[in-house]
Amino acid sequence: MKIIKFFKNVSREMKKVSWPKGRELTSYTITVLTTVAFVAVFFAIIDLGISQLLNLFF
Fold this sequence. Notes:
This protein is mostly helical. It has two helices and no strands. It is 88% helix and 0% strand.
């Protein structure tokens, strides 16, 4: 019976959530994708640099 009460509470709380509108969602999605791409390129460059340094010494 606790599981039923849990899902009722979840349903009640989900109705209170303020979901983003279409334009906000697009903006947030572009921001997230840009950030992920930037971080991926940044770490790829760092990895390449460390690999090159290790190849010089070993």
